[in-house]
# Entry
Amino acid sequence: MPKHRFQRDEHLIAQWLKNPDEAPESIRERVLALRRSQAAVRNAWIEHYRPGDDATAEEIRVAREAFQKEYAEEIRASRELRSALIRDLRSGVRGAIEDAVWGEQARAIYAEYTQSQVALGAAWKEARAALGQNPTREELKAAREQFNRANADVIAKQKRLAKQVRDLMREGRDDRMASRDELPLELDDLRSDMASLRDQVRARQRQAREEMQNLSAEEREAYRQALLEELRQLHDEIKQRRRQVMEDMRAGQPEPRRSRN
# Structure
């Protein structure tokens, strides 16, 4: 993908996240879901895991690891939602939800996921408002623990749905790759995805620099470590896929690539 095109796509997504009404109607719900997902993950870190300003490096590390473990599915689902938007833009805003690859069951799961996300967010907002304007960190933590206990079944369901959404995004991507005609498809898409990944890393780093401007030194370090883990997972996913593609091609002995017209 040309660099200028990816930068344009990243700019569009950032603009849509700020004002979803500007997004094309076909992907507006996906933009809203991504915004809610990112906000939920960010707020969870800030309100329940982020150590105080006087926290030691070890305390920050422990908090970060606990957060990443507890919210692993939500973080992955959010990343898949963003990747799906990039793929849609790359293919002319062909929404996976409207795509034939997505059946009725897949669309129903996605709708249930977004509805559950909205319901949980509204319930927590109400519980948060009951604490007043300036609750202490201890009050917030206690309120969140009580909220999690009261909504344990819904939260567990949300995690399952987040995993299903992530898997569906990947299945949709793989099915679209398999349906193309040119050879070798795997290497063509792999090269494109690796170029896209490099651009994603640069764009994510720029976004991180903006988001870290108002954080303390300890918070910036925790944010940086979380970002490094996110980027490491992206790299690992591409590396694993590259290995699998090469193994499949060696086993299948594919024909030489046909030239593009």
